Fold this protein.
Amino acid sequence: MPETAEGSWAQLALDAVTSGDRRAGAARRAVIELLAGERCCLGAQDIADRLRGTEHTVGVASVYRTLDLLSAAGLVQRVYVGGRALYEAVVPGGEHHHHAVCERCGSLTPFEDPALERAIDGLADRLGVRVQAHDVLIRGECSGCAGS
């Protein structure tokens, strides 16, 4: 996860979930540490499953509560794939990627494309819109499924 001027994403996330009267319990810390090490999206159940059997077993309800706090702080984005919400860490104002999903097997491939970003910026200029965020999800068949 990239560093920001304010520090690491994990530190930003920890600060967000401990604002107000909230504590940074072991469950919240474990979810943040896991997300900080991921390159792409995970579902809440995936996060709970990955943490199961580690020293930081976390229930799915705790995962959802942490994700809700991080989402409200703008530190995770939800990506809806096949009716399922997936989550990934985002650095406010930082670089991001988009996704291609296989409609047959469900594989999710992250991608970056500077030309696509320039096209989105150009479209925003033509429309007179100040883009605050955007998501691109390409649906199709992966190379493994297309050949079968």
DSSP finds six helices and seven strands in the chain. The mean pLDDT is 87.
